[in-house]
Amino acid sequence: MKLSNFDFELPERLIALHPALPRDTARLMVIDRITGEIGDSHFYDLPDFLKPGDFLVFNKSKVIPARLFGKAGDKDIEVLLTSPCHSEPTGESMQKNPGFRIPACRTGRKSGMATNIWQAKAKPGKRLKISSEIRFSDRLSAEVKAEKEGIFLLRFNLRGGDFWREIERIGEMPLPPYILKARRERHGESIDKSDYQTVFADKPGSVAAPTAGLHFTNELLEKIKAKGCEIGFVDLHVGLGTFEPIRAENIEDHKIHSEYFELSQDLAAKLNKAKKEGRHIIAVGTTTVRVLESCQKNGILKPQSGETSIYIYPGYKFGFVDGMITNFHLPKSSLLLLVSAFYSKDKTIEAYKRAIKSNYRFYSYGDGMLIS
Questions:
Q1: How far is it, in rounded angstroms, from Cα 215 to Cα 200?
Q2: Given 15, 64, 83, 273, which is the most exposed site by the fewest CB atoms within 10 A?
Q3: Yes or no: domain 67-170 corresponds to CATH 2.40.10.240
């Protein structure tokens, strides 16, 4: 299947530059996969479209201030941290493993927050040479240790609490480039440190928000539970696997970078019980979908933690997820392909065209849809 089949024209005015306030006033497109019926509502009405016993699963990963601005010599450099490593890959292992996906860098973020070695993207990357130093502040600097296919390996001079205190002080939230470009400014706004974070964010590790969860308030979560629904939380630390663009025209040729996830034994048991009882499992966000589908075999979840590079596109057979809450995504993105696999390519594109005609807001801060 060709990537061009997943393209569409989107007016720039529909790119949401700020979230809806309050969060749950964002619009909600409601799609019934069985009847094909499509309705328009708002997130605060979500409980009206749920049934007692439905099980909603959220990604509770917390976004880190991963965008850093520094200088290499007298040249300005922008760095986006993408994932931590415990040790430096050797030159030989880098050549054998594209994108640094090697054991040393696949330790995940469960304990990776203490490391001082990070994978990162840099702009402009051509200004960086191996062994060059990037200075981010009077306290924080990094040495460029390696580069492959646009991904740099940086060794910072600080680690642990010292590193994180400085990152919190000088780092910017990693807003998507299209938001920054549309705002016509280089830096994000201070309010994004709260706006670009779910109300239930817990474990630091993501370099992009699990955006479907941004629409939920604590009050809405309580209403969902009062409806008789159950909720649970997984972790998937969003990195290159989620937001890296597809460059291959044949979608089957795309490879996704691995991302760290956790599914607890307690939640797996609850979800397996709900599934056995015929209750609907509704994944909030494509990252949650990827966790659940990575952990299932023959419709049964196995609790685990580790790395997933699962790539879901049309033709994939879902084994556990019955419903999905998601935002409106970029054209030709892996996220759009995942939604198309769940709903069908043609119907998804038609729903997007309807959303454009109805002035739905798109992307990270935009509106969303419930597909069940």
A1: 11
A2: 273
A3: yes
